[in-house]
Amino acid sequence: MLNSIKIEDILFLDIETVPQHPEYQQMPEPFQLLWDKKAQRIAKENETSEEIYQKAGIYAEFGKIICISAGIVVPKSNSLFFRVKSFAGEDEVLILRDFADMLEKFSAKPGALLCAHNGKEFDFPYISRRMLINGIKLPNLLDIAGKKPWEVNHLDTMELWKFGDYKHYTSLNLLAYTFNIPTPKDDIDGSQVAEVFYKDNDLERIVTYCEKDVLTVAQLLLRYRNEPIIDPANIEKAKG
Asked: Of 4, 11, 28, 48, whose CB is crowded by the most CB atoms within 10 A?
């Protein structure tokens, strides 16, 4: 099934998220109380809601998107190239609007698909929720309400690896190592993104990390298809 898909019809993506506020104490009081209730359900024994606030970024109600990296595989002259573009910054609304515009154009392709690692559980719904919260119309590829499962044009490299095993979670980093793909976690990992964003003020470092993840997802799908991975020399930054 995977080999019947045109690789150039797939948009690979990854997102980086952080809590909406740098510190627990900076949350508005009503919001803080809502987080306290959420924290009661996810905290380990003796953990306070303040102590686990760094986890708020993984929940669309309490977090926000600071980077979306998207890439496509481009076949050229018997070689594969990877073209990546990132939407990043402190203004989430601008990030989402620009990404929505790009995604709407990509959606016009007859066979257009989205692909991410754990995308069905995280990236796709998170982007959709944050778009709705910010009053942004969902692009066609994210507007799945009322669609039958086979009408949803989403691929998920983690789901594909499960082979029907609902309990099997495998990280992108582990699969990269398993398939001999260069690791995307050679600098930071997801747990460090909020600190790098709020304390180090190093957005470029986060963008680089996000783009490595996107490339790794594309490389992994190629390996699932028993195809060679993309040469690092063939990575291109999209213009504009």
From this structure: 11
In the block, residue with structure tokens 């708020």: 56
Q: Are 17 and 193 in contact (CB under 8 A)?
A: yes
What's the one-letter identity of residue 203?
Answer: L
Q: Domain 2-20+62-237 is of which CATH architecture?
A: 2-Layer Sandwich (3.30)
pLDDT of residue 99: 97
Pairing of strands 63-76, 10-19: antiparallel
Helices H / strands E in the chain, number of each: 7, 6
Cα dihedral across residues 200, 202, 233, 227: positive or negative: positive
In whole angstroms, give the CA distance from residue 211 to residue 83: 10
Separation between Cα atoms, residue 141 and residue 226, nearest integer Å: 27
Query: 154 pairs with which residues across the strands?
Result: 114
pLDDT digit string, tens, across residues 78-93: 899 999 999 999 999 9
Give mean pLDDT, residues 5-32.
95
Between CA 107 and CA 9 the distance in angstroms is: 9
Tell me the pLDDT tens digit for each residue of 122-157: 999 999 999 999 999 999 999 998 888 888 899 999
Contact between 230 and 215 under an 8 Å Cβ cutoff? The reply is: yes
Among the listed residues 1, 4, 9, the one whose alpha carbon sits nearest the alpha carbon of residue 218: 9
How far CA 51 is from CA of 24, 64, 69, in Å, comes to: 9, 19, 30
Q: Is the pLDDT of residue 189 over 90?
A: no
Contact indicator for 121, 60 with CB cutoff of 8 Å: no
Residues 6+ apart with CB under 8 A from 215: 12, 71, 82, 84, 184, 230, 235
